[in-house]
Amino acid sequence: xxxxxxxxxxxxxxxxxxxxxxxxxxxxxxxxxxxxxxxxxxxxxxxxxxxxxxxxxxxxxxxxxxxxxxxxxxxxxxxxxxxxxxxxxxxxxxxxxxxxxxxxxxxxxxxxxxxxxxxxxxxxxxxxxxxxxxxxxxxxxxxxxxxxxxxxxxxxxxxxxxxxxxxxxxxxxxxxxxxxxxxxxxxxxxxxxxxxxxxxxxxxxxxxxxxxxxxxxxxx
Length: 220
Prior knowledge:
This is Phage tail protein. It comes from Pseudomonas azotoformans. By secondary structure, this protein is an alpha+beta fold. Helix content is 30%, strand content 24%. The protein folds into 2 domains: 1-28 and 82-134, no CATH class; 142-218, no CATH class. The chain has helices at 15-18, 107-118, 142-172, 181-196, 216-219; strands at residues 3-6, 11-14, 22-26, 34-38, 46-50, 62-66, 74-78, 86-90, 102-105, 122-126, 132-136. Helix 3 packs antiparallel against helix 4. The longest helix has 31 residues, at 142-172. The protein is elongated, with a radius of gyration of 41 Å. The protein starts with a strand and ends with a helix.
């Protein structure tokens, strides 16, 4: 698989996901060749042939028989065994940028770049001669940090909503509850801490984010 990098778009492309530039298709101008075959509808003709005489003075008798020497006429039919040759044409589904905007990189280089990005603290940037490079991540603004924490807080509340609803439903129909009373209290306390988190003096520092109950992950 060929892998490409675009410094203009600062991202990677490959032929598997974005399609090759050219594809092979049957030649639309090809015409199936004609071959000659014996006419399948031909019926072998009959002719008169002599039979053996019963006596020396009797006249030879004749009878009708198939003409074994007759040959079926040949007719023209399309050659069903022939296949159209393939020609190379531009791929209309190709999503690769123009070739001038791309540089090809090896799979090893691609894997190393993503290994470094996965470690955090780095971003992908265009390097020398349009090749991919790694640079330190810029510091997030206060507004960006607050937005991230509010998103994480909303996600945590959304994930635990079904647990609260299930517990209340189980109590209402007088069935055994999945959560114990203590777990339910701890869960509600955690959810309230999440609601209060934006008003904390330490918001949005991740180190002060409310900690979920240790057993919560098993319930989600």
